[in-house]
Design goal:
Main location: mitochondrion
Organism: Daphnia sinensis
Low-confidence stretches: none
Strand content: 15-25%
CATH architecture of the largest domain: Alpha-Beta Complex
Oligomer: single chain
Structural class: alpha+beta
InterPro entries: Glutathione_S-Trfase, Glutathione_S-Trfase_N, Ribosomal_uL16, Ribosomal_uL16_bact-type, Ribosomal_uL16_dom, Ribosomal_uL16_sf, Thioredoxin-like_sf
CATH class of the largest domain: Alpha Beta
Order of helices and strands: EHEHEEHHEEHEEEEHEHHH
Mean pLDDT: 87
CATH superfamily of the largest domain: Ribosomal protein L16/L10
Protein name: Large ribosomal subunit protein uL16m
Radius of gyration: 34 Å
Number of domains: 2
Keywords: Mitochondrion, Ribonucleoprotein, Ribosomal protein, Transit peptide
Distance between the termini: 73 Å
C-alpha cells in the first residue's frame, strides 16, 4: 500500500486541494503540519525550498498543482479522455486563483504572480526643477587673491579645522544628490580640479547641474626648501588647501535625473578623495538619521561611550583625548 505524507503549514492554503482529493477518495495519508516559526527547520529538506510537499513512499513531490494532478491521475479523477482532462485542469486552475486571493488577504506582503505583465512605477515628476544658466562646476583658483600691498600670510597647521562634525554645510540645499565627507581631511587644488573635470565630463548638462559646497583653497601650508636645516622660522608657502570636517557636503548634483543615473560618477569621485567620503541622496541621509535615532532608543546597554566618559569610569579622563570628552569617540 502506498504511503502518502503531505507536508504544509498549519493552515489550508495550497495544500488544501491535495487534501480534498485524498479525503474524497477515502485514502489514508499523513497530514503533517507545522507552525510558521518552525519553517526554517524544514525548508532545507524541501525540493525547491517551498511547500506543500507530497512524499510518496519517501519520495518528495513539490508544487501544489503537480501534486493535485498526480493524485488525480493515480485515483481516476483526471478524466478518461483529453476533454475531461482539460475540464479537470480548468477546475484546478480555478482553485489556484481562489487560493491566491485568500493568501493575499492573509499575507498582504506576499508577492503572487498572476500574470506575465510587470508593474512599473510611474516616472518621477521633475516639473518643479529649474536648471541654472551655468549647470557645470566652475573653476576654482589655486591661490587666493590678496591685495597688491599685502604679503600672503602664513598660518599654523590648525588641525582643529578638520576635527569634529560639520555644523553648517551638512544638508543638501537642492534636496537631491551629492558627495558627503565621512571624516576630516584636506582638499588641495588637484583634488578640486579632479572633482570638477570628472563630474563635468560625465553628467548630462541638458538635464543635470552641479554646484560647489566648499570654498576655494584658502589655508596656506608651508614647506622648507630641500637641504635646509630646521629652525629659522616657517618655510615658504608651498600650496593652499580647503579643510573639510566630517559630514561636510562637498558637491551637489541635481536636475531632472534619478540617483541611479548620477551614482556611478559620484561614487568614482568619492573613492579617489584623500579621505573617506560617499555618494548619497537626500532620502538616504534622512533614513540614516532615523535609523540612528532608532538604534539609540532601542539600545538596552546603559554603558554607552557618552555615559562612560561623562562619569569618568575607569579614570578615562586621564588618558583619552580632550576631543573624545567632547564628541565621545565619534570623530577620530
Amino acid at each position: 500500500m502506498v504511503h502518502y505524507k503531505l507536508i504544509y503549514f498549519n493552515l489550508r492554503g495550497r495544500a488544501e486541494l491535495a487534501r480534498l482529493i485524498l479525503q474524497h477518495q477515502e485514502i489514508a495519508f499523513e497530514d503533517f503540519r507545522f507552525e510558521r516559526e518552525d519553517w526554517p527547520k524544514y525548508k532545507a529538506g524541501t525540493p525547491f525550498g517551498q511547500v506543500p510537499v507530497l512524499e510518496v513512499d519517501g519520495k518528495p513531490l513539490a508544487q501544489s498543482n503537480a501534486i493535485a494532478r498526480y493524485l488525480a491521475r493515480q485515483h481516476g479523477l483526471a478524466g478518461q479522455n483529453d476533454w475531461e482532462q482539460s475540464q479537470a485542469d480548468m477546475y484546478v486552475d480555478c482553485i489556484y486563483d481562489l487560493i491566491g486571493g485568500f493568501l493575499r488577504q492573509w499575507c498582504p506582503r506576499m508577492v503572487i504572480q498572476t500574470a506575465g505583465m510587470k508593474n512599473y512605477k510611474p516616472p518621477i515628476d521633475f516639473s518643479g526643477i529649474e536648471l541654472p544658466e551655468k549647470p557645470k562646476l566652475t573653476f576654482m583658483d589655486k591661490v587666493p587673491t590678496y591685495p597688491s600691498n599685502l604679503k600672503p600670510p602664513k598660518m599654523a597647521k590648525r588641525i582643529t579645522l578638520m576635527r569634529g562634525p560639520e555644523l553648517i554645510h551638512n544638508e543638501f540645499i537642492h534636496k537631491q544628490y551629492g558627495i558627503v565627507a565621512l571624516c576630516g581631511g584636506r582638499l588641495n587644488s588637484g583634488h578640486i580640479e579632479m572633482i570638477r573635470m570628472t563630474i563635468n565630463r560625465k553628467m548630462d548638462a541638458n538635464r543635470m547641474f552641479a554646484v560647489w559646497r566648499i570654498d576655494p583653497p584658502w589655508q596656506p601650508l608651508t614647506r622648507k626648501g630641500q637641504g635646509k636645516r630646521m629652525g629659522g622660522g616657517k618655510g615658504a608657502i608651498d600650496h593652499y588647501v580647503t579643510p573639510i570636517k566630517a559630514g561636510r557636503v562637498i558637491v551637489e548634483v541635481g536636475g531632472k535625473c534619478e540617483f541611479a543615473e548620477v551614482f556611478s560618477f559620484l561614487n568614482e569621485v568619492a573613492h579617489i578623495l584623500p579621505f573617506n567620503a560617499k555618494a548619497t541622496s537626500h532620502e538616504l541621509m534622512e533614513a540614516e538619521k532615523i535609523k540612528e535615532k532608532e538604534l539609540a532608543a532601542s539600545n538596552v546597554n546603559p554603558y554607552t561611550a557618552e555615559y562612560v566618559i561623562k562619569n569618568n569610569m575607569g579614570g578615562c579622563h586621564d588618558w583619552i583625548s580632550p576631543y573624545d570628552k567632547k564628541w565621545f569617540f565619534k570623530y577620530v
